[in-house]
Design goal:
15 strands; globular; alpha+beta; disordered N terminus; 15% helix
Length: 262
């Protein structure tokens, strides 16, 4: 009886948490930067280990992230679909791009309610998300950046949940990493450009967070510095916006091809 009461109480707390968090968001309305490419540089804080990330808003609910290092003949293209009801990604498609070769689908991830199903090559599994909205740090928090425009009040704190791939009992698994709290600190200029500055930290970042700066017009990420690296070869993580331009879908496709052909 006590166990049943505990489970019901936990479920009630989770539902109340989701409801109160949902009150902080609303549908973003018109996406004014449709068909815009945001170019980022990713590196350690000291500028080492630099690579490029091109984030393309290809639809009102779809992002395409092209990760590439100049001179390489292969790259990664991740397509993410945003659910504006949960303010989270509900589907990922991960393609490997190679010079003069057809794109190779290497991973698929999708959510059904709060169940997350994923497939990486022959490996298939599922798990249940413990909180919403959720975002992926492996995706460079791009989903978080895109959903920022859905916040009703950009100067209030909010939280989200991180879930990402990892190892469990020696096997590949998708894991609930935990909650991350985002606290608004105020306005700050970076290279003469006004920004909204936030502190970002919590269990989902292993309590090795940092700061994130947001464009007050587009609400896209301008920069983040986080102590926790998100992939091997990094000591920490820094992402910086270095440019943006409009591209039609045809121009975007040609851009991807030309990068690998150079």
């Amino acid at each position: 009886m006590r166990k049943l009461f505990f489970c019901l109480s936990l479920l009630l707390i989770l539902n109340m948490n989701l409801a109160s968090q949902g009150d902080k968001f609303q549908h973003p309305g018109e996406i004014r930067d449709l068909y815009t490419v945001y170019e980022y540089k990713k590196s350690n804080w000291d500028g080492s280990h630099t690579s490029s990330i091109f984030l393309y808003i290809s639809d009102s609910n779809r992002l395409e992230s092209f990760k590439w290092t100049k001179g390489d003949k292969s790259a990664t293209l991740v397509t993410a679909f945003i659910d504006w009801n949960s303010f989270s990604v509900n589907r990922f498609l991960n393609h490997r791009l190679r010079h003069r070769a057809d794109p190779q689908l290497v991973a698929v991830l999708e959510t059904r309610a709060r169940d997350l199903w994923f497939e990486v090559g022959p490996f298939r599994d599922s798990m249940q998300l413990t909180s919403m909205p959720w975002h992926s740090y492996d995706f460079d928090l791009a989903g978080l950046g895109f959903s920022w425009r859905a916040l009703k009040n950009k100067r209030e704190s909010f939280h989200f949940h991180i879930a990402d791939a990892g190892q469990q009992e020696g096997k590949l698994a998708f894991l609930n990493k935990g909650r991350v709290l985002v606290n608004y600190l105020g306005e700050e200029e970076i290279n003469g450009q006004p920004t909204l500055k936030y502190k970002i930290d919590g269990e989902g970042l292993e309590n090795k967070g940092g700061h994130i700066w947001i464009d007050p017009d587009s609400y896209m990420i301008l920069k983040y510095q986080i102590a926790l690296p998100d992939e091997e070869g990094f000591d920490n993580a820094m992402l910086q916006l270095v440019g943006k331009q409009e591209m039609s879908p045809a121009q975007w496709g040609a851009f991807l091809k030309n990068c690998l052909d150079d």
